[in-house]
Queue: 3 jobs
Job 1
Amino acid sequence: MNIVLMGPPGAGKGTQAKRIAHKYNIPHISTGDMLREAVAAGNDLGLKVGEIMEKGLLVPDTLMIGLVKERLSRGDARNGFILDGFPRTVEQAGALDEMLEELDRKVDVVLLVNSSEEVVVDRISSRRVCPKCGKVYNLLTIKPHIDGRCDVDGSQLVQRDDDLAETVRSRYRVYVEKTAPVIDYYSNSEVFFLDIDGSGNIDEVAGEIFGLLGNV
Ligand code: AP5
């Protein structure tokens, strides 16, 4: 199954994408994670995008389209994928359709996980991540066993550079302006478009997603 997962920053896309990827045995392709890895590695791409991400703005379409095209050409994506964070503009959505068409494939399902600005600002403000293994925590809901330390490798947990409340509000504005039109793009197309209420707890949201995916 070829799945696109959309939603505002902090709606829980990464959290749910991991569960979906596990259940369907498909790769979780997070463009945010790919960019953060490039920034951490200090490579050419990372040097280009670091400042843009820190401000909560979108990385140029041409860069993103090239990155995703290369990723989807790898063998592990042959039998399906879950794309988390791409497409984020109508231009990216059109490019995704084109690159899949070249491979004789298409987007099967679009999952929109919705949440209000207040909910996502609260969730993101309390998110902490492990800089070594990438595990995501939440100071309110998914606390580590030892304060401030990753359960997996003991690293000191950190806050993402773009997770300050002010930047989150600007990311939300960018989402409304640039990414919300992608919802219209897909709801006017032939894909299965599933609209999920992301305001419940993690298991409730997962239950709704798997219930709906089971009917596709
Ligand atoms: P990206 O990493 O994609 O960020 P995002 O879309 O803003 O999403 P987040 O990762 O912040 O949140 P999420 O929805 O995955 O939530 P999570 O599950 O972690 O992109 C970062 C940046 O990269 C962009 O701003 C842009 O600059 C650039 N970029 C990336 N892709 C791009 C593209 N295609 N084009 C251009 N630029 C691009 O959950 C959040 C927190 O809440 C966690 O602590 C979690 O534990 C907790 N939580 C999750 N679900 C629940 C729940 N149901 N109840 C309570 N807590 C929950």
Job 2
Amino acid sequence: MQEPKTYFIRTYGCQMNELDTQIMAGQLEKRGLSPVEDEDNADVLIFNTCSIRDLAERKVMGKLGQIGRGKKKQALIGITGCMAMAKKDSLFRKFPHLDFVLGTNNITDLGTVVDEALISNRQIYKTDDKFEENLNYLAAKRESKIKAFVSIIRGCDKYCTYCVVPYTRGQEVSRPPESILEECKQLVDQGYKEITLLGQNVNSYGKDASWNCLFHDLLYQIDRIPGMERVRFITSHPVDITIDLMHAVRDLKSLCEFVHFPIQAGSNRILKKMHRIYTKEQYFEKVALLKQIVPNVSLGTDIIVGFPTETEAEFQETYDAIKEIRYSVGFFYAYSPRKGTPAMRWKDDIPEEVKQDRLQRLLNLQETIGNELRSEMLGQTVEVLVERLNKDHRLLKGRTRCWKKVIFEGPEALIGTLQKVKIHSFAHETLVGELVKPSSLLTVS
Ligand code: 5AD
Ligand code: SF4
């Protein structure tokens, strides 16, 4: 096969996968490849996959089957991401047209793997269990010029019984603080306005390392970078949310007042079976403390319904927890058994229609809570980072510090700037407002 000139990467799953795609794209571009819009025209075609639920895997399997049948041109085809880790070289048996399988901890080996596949004409796979610390993050090719993801810790040591992540992303490895600070400084110099610190559990940052810098220490250092406007972080395990972190959210100018820390379930029996290592009461205590220390904080959560043996009464506890806490953002999922996880030993005994019914009830509840929270914002002036034009190209669109979507009228030149917007109404999940003069008072929201 000739030296490839073009590439296409299709990304599935979470923000960590999005960032991994950007890092892989950066490497391909460094060796002279350019992106193409249509995957049929790519010389290197990569599927950066997700294994978190069965549906995510089935999507990729279907796509790969299709490509095998209708492979139009001679392209190198690779699978990266969590499915690569979960299925390893068994993927070659199912998809003989695959050229390489590259695990989550080997994304910087992409160039070498492409070379080897080209020269040897063999199927290559690399799936290390542990992440190599010296990743060259700075080579990521970012789509946006306004917001950037920065990885600070990879892997997860929590081993929730339903979750494949500890197996597909390996054990926790924190990135050295100097490397993170260097990347953040460069991003500010390039004009980025918002940085999202990424990790499966960002609050574990630094615990695995010899240096003396925990997550809140890192946040203080990032906040001190001149010109740093906004910092976010996802995602957090409730057990590792400390008072120091809450103080950082209160005190640091750049740190946004939004904390996504999934409760997953509201029943103590289910939490224990999930190995979440906290009780509902302990979680509620953290929420109360966080709301007391940062009164304007917005909260986000993930929930799994239909976990093995979950009764209607236990589901009701989850429902009541959401009602009481009033999250501004909720992601709700039906339990999906994952091979290799401890929960696989229990029968997936909640019928699909019961799972779907529970999901729908949570979605309805969240819509009501979301509308109430949005109503409370009418008349408030908020800070919006203007990201783009909305779909019909008439209005500007951005997000508040608390991650709420806002649209308003204004010149396109404001894209990439922070503006004050007075909220007058909302449509579905989006707040609608009008631009106010810079001298106006600002409520953080
Ligand atoms: N089934 C359903 N949802 C899951 N999640 C993780 N594993 C599973 C699973 N097996 C959800 C959790 C997690 C989010 C990223 O995905 O809620 O926080
Ligand atoms: Fe999965 Fe639990 Fe780790 Fe989150 S904390 S990535 S749900 S094992």
Job 3
Amino acid sequence: MYDLIIIGSGPAGLTAGIYAERAGLKALVIERNFMSGGQIIDTYEVDNYPGLMGINGFDLAQKMREHADQLGVEFKTAEVQSVEDLGETKKVKTPEETLLSKAVLFATGAHHRSLGIPGEAEYAGKGVSYCATCDGAFYKNKDVAVIGGGNVAIEDAIFLARTCQKVYVVHRRDQLRAQKALQDKLFEFDNVEMVWHHTPVEVVGKDGKTSGLLVHDKLTDAEKTIDVSGVFVAVGIVPNTKGYEQICALDNNGYIVAGEDCRTSAPGFFAAGDVRTKEVRQVATAVGDGANAVASVERYLNTQEW
Ligand code: NAP
């Protein structure tokens, strides 16, 4: 019987593991991939995590994991199949075993939203990508399109502009959601062209590879095809909460409803990081959640109060 099972090993889960270990709890971190770090693994540069300016996301994840390993945090690689609330005991099932715990922390993060347009699935991995830092190198000296206007889209566009011949940023409005510092950096590149007020309609291909992106002009209703060999989709994230609606309350967007103390609507269940309802989803706030969650877990284990 564990005191705490932490599902997910992004910054929130890793921090919770570190805090739980230091608090003397019998804790387990279950991670789906062999690589800890969650979404930051794919982040080229994390420029706003205090003390580690400009660090590569992969390196930051490694550092956090090393910290957890040095303290002796227990990890298991497995895909959680189901979580069950048996009252004081919680049951977590993986394909190999059934684990029992007094408390469970959901730190499962989020994943890339897809566009759902024709050609997107067909050309995924053949020109359509959701990770510029992973796939950008394949498009050196080529023309690419980035879809979206948030931090991720603009970071991707900056990253790609350094090596690609031309980067089209396709955005459905004429204002970017991304931080001003990122916008300023983007506009320094003369190989970036903003395609304002356009929505993607179809990824078009030739000979089994992406050859263009059909876009719709919201102002004139006209359609045109931008000739590109890569389409980078960066239109937001979706929380990884499938099945959790059976356990605790989710909001309209699928995030687990939980405040700063990370307590969900169900006693003994906690949520930390991008998966919970919050204003700002950043590494810094995920790490804060990991620490807060363990403090709440300790309180719960000591008092059983909810
Ligand atoms: P985001 O901030 O939600 O931005 C998504 C973008 O995609 C928005 O510009 C949105 O347009 C657009 N979009 C959404 N659905 C679309 C559709 N169907 N078709 C076309 N465009 C669509 O998501 P994100 O950029 O993936 O970032 C996720 C979170 O991580 C955010 O909270 C972000 O701040 C954070 N983050 C922070 C940093 C950093 O601080 N360095 C880096 C990376 C990520 P509208 O603007 O019109 O809604």
